[in-house]
Amino acid sequence: MLDFSTLLPALPVLWEGVQMTVLLSISALTLGLIIGTIMCTARLSNSTPLRILTKLYVSFFRGVPLLVQLMLSYYCLPLIGINTPALPTAIVCVGLCSSAYITEILRGGFQSLSPGQKESAIMVGLNRLQIVAFIELPQVIRLTIPALINEAIILVKASSLISVIGIVELTRVTQNLAASNFQPFEFYLTAALVYFILNSTISVLGLWVERRINSRSIV
Amino acid sequence: MNKQTQDSPIVEVQKMSKNFGTTQVLKNVDLKVQPSEVMCLIGPSGSGKSTLLRCIAFLEQYSSGNIYIEGEMLGYNDDTDIRKLTSTNELNHVRRNMGMVFQQFNLWPHMTALGNVTEALVRVKKLSRREADEKGHAILKKVGLAERALHYPAQLSGGQQQRVAIARSLAMEPSVMLFDEPTSALDPELVGEVLQVMKDLAKDGMTMIVVTHEMGFAAQVADTVVFLDQGEILMKGSPKEIFQGEKPPRLEQFLKNYMDRNAFWE
Ligand SMILES: Nc1ncnc2c1ncn2[C@@H]1O[C@H](COP(=O)(O)OP(=O)(O)OP(=O)(O)O)[C@@H](O)[C@H]1O
Ligand SMILES: [Mg+2]
Fold first, then answer.
1. Contact assignment for B92 to A121 by CB distance below 8 Å
2. ipTM for the complex?
3. Strands B98-101, B11-20: parallel, antiparallel or unpaired by DSSP?
4. What is the DSSP string of B199-232?
5. Of the candidates A184, A191, A172, which has an alpha carbon nearest to the alpha carbon of residue A2?
6. Are B106 and A127 inside 8 Å of each other by CB?
7. pLDDT value of position B242
8. Cα dihedral sign for B60, B163, B92, B76?
9. I need a labelling partner for A212 at 20 to 30 A (CA). Which of A40, A140, B41, B181 fits?
């Protein structure tokens, strides 16, 4: 039968792993949102070089597995003299990868707005930045929140991959504990539960935000 | 309407042409709109009415010729031999006294009627939220929507939405307003309330360029009616000249089609 008695003494270590997972997810998601917004603006700009550049960017980060990106930046960059500490490398890799998806999610949102809304904004004298900030973004956020929440959840799960470059987050801690206690079942089950709780929290939070925004205006 | 013809025109279009790729949709258009003048643009579908209006708003770049708004060149720098686009700031400066109302209203759905009207007051005219709201309420009252200030566009009828769009434009105190078929997207019973607001504006001395299929409105309100056909101005004159005088066969045909479509009693 399952024996969870070894779980209790392991809790502090496990907790540190959870903290690392949360820290990494939040940092990477923030980075992804910022870069994604910038990339999306560039992707939708009038400049052809910018558009091509962002297209390449998106296809690279969507086309190469995160695991390979992590390996490349952690093990290969130092070979050409660029030293990359594990945690920043992980945040940047996960963040950039996520930003590629976020770029596309936001692009869909911006392109679903009728061009007429922008023209009426131009005609009352709003400048480009004001149009993005006050006319387009609020609508885009509302339209894309379900997809962005999805992306956040995928990101939390993808963060388990960074264990390969030696960062001790939830998955790595679980691996260690399971091996040293000879109890894979108990510890992996616990990890599964923790991931599930983390992602359910995001999901509930997302629904709450969605409801709040929608209650303030009707489309 | 008492026109002050000695004043310089608010809008002046000189030998303006517009191409989309290789097709020319406007050919050598000349227009002058004086202060307080109401000009109606009529013509068959595809004749270039919207394109002309959008060129005057510089939502489309015209290909050749000149457009002046209150004496200032619109959209291009003409000091050098090669014509160059002006900066966005300069463009917005020349356009600052121009309002536009669209067929599809183009309201911002995430803002209330009041929000739509006050947004530019706060962001562009830099009024405080309180001043803007005060002004917004006053203008909404003027278009008959005092009770609807806190409604979102989706909660308003088409006619009400279009009146909000007019109020939004009016809030910026334009010296000329452009209307592109403002009633064409409306149910017939809602057309009247929007036309009434436009008539009131005309009476108050607003300079207006109106693309419309409402011949009744053109006949009653316009100082000048311009008939556009295949990108060219075929005739320009008072409503009386256009509707009752000698006219080119294309205009004759256009008006006859209109009569046939709208006749319900012989
Ligand atoms: N963006 C565009 N690209 C290419 N051709 C265009 C574009 N916009 C308009 N046209 C063409 O220019 C011509 C004039 O169009 P415009 O929309 O100005 O006509 P209109 O008089 O407003 O017609 P309607 O009464 O149907 O609104 C049409 O032949 C149209 O197909
Ligand atoms: Mg049109």
1. no
2. 0.92
3. unpaired
4. HHHHHTT-EEEEE-S-HHHHHHH-SEEEEEETTE
5. A184
6. no
7. 95
8. positive
9. A40
| Candidate from A116, A125, A219 with C-beta closest to B120 | A125
Residue B6's pLDDT is 55
Cα distance between residue B263 and residue A214, in whole Å: 47
Range A10-218 has CATH code 3.40.309.10: no
State if residue B184 touches ligand 1 by the CB under 6 angstroms criterion.
no
CA angle (B180 as vertex; A45, B182 as ends), nearest 5: 120
Q: What is the mean pLDDT of residues A43-67?
A: 94
Residue numbers of A between 104 and 123 with CB closer than 8 Å to B:
114, 116-117, 119-123
The CA-to-CA distance between both ends of chain A, in Å, stands at 55
Neighboring chain A residues of B88 at a CB cutoff of 8 Å: 127-128
Which residue do the tokens 């190469």 mark?
A: A64
Q: How far is the CA of B25 from the centre of ligand 1 (A)?
A: 7
Residue whose CA is at the smallest distance from ligand 1 atom 9: B51
Q: How far apart are CA B49 and CA B40, in angstroms?
A: 10
Give the integer Cα–Cα distance in Å for B141 and B145: 5
What average pLDDT values come out for chain B (266 residues) when binned by 10 residues? 62 96 96 97 96 97 95 87 88 96 96 97 97 97 96 96 98 97 94 96 97 95 97 96 93 92 76
**Ligand 1 centroid to B59 CA: how many Å?**
13
Ligand 1 atom index nearest CA of B211? 22
pLDDT in tens, A182-199: 888 999 999 999 999 999
- Determine the distance in angstroms separating the CA of A58 from the nearest CA of chain B, rounded to an integer: 30
Counting residues of chain A whose pLDDT is more than 90, the rounded percentage is: 76
Q: What's the gap in Å between B172 CA and the centre of ligand 2?
A: 24
The alpha helices in B78-112, defined as continuous H runs, are 88-94
B9 membership: H or E segment, kind and range: none
Average pLDDT of the residues of chain A: 92
List, as ranges, residues 37-56 from B with C-beta within 8 Å of A: none
Using alpha carbons, select from B102, B42, B96 the residue that is nearest to residue B74.
Answer: B96
Taking CB atoms and an 8 Å cut-off, how many pairs form between chains A and B? 72
Domain ranges, ordered by start, for chain A: 10-218
Q: How does pLDDT run across A100-119, given as a tens digit for each residue?
A: 999 999 999 999 999 999 99
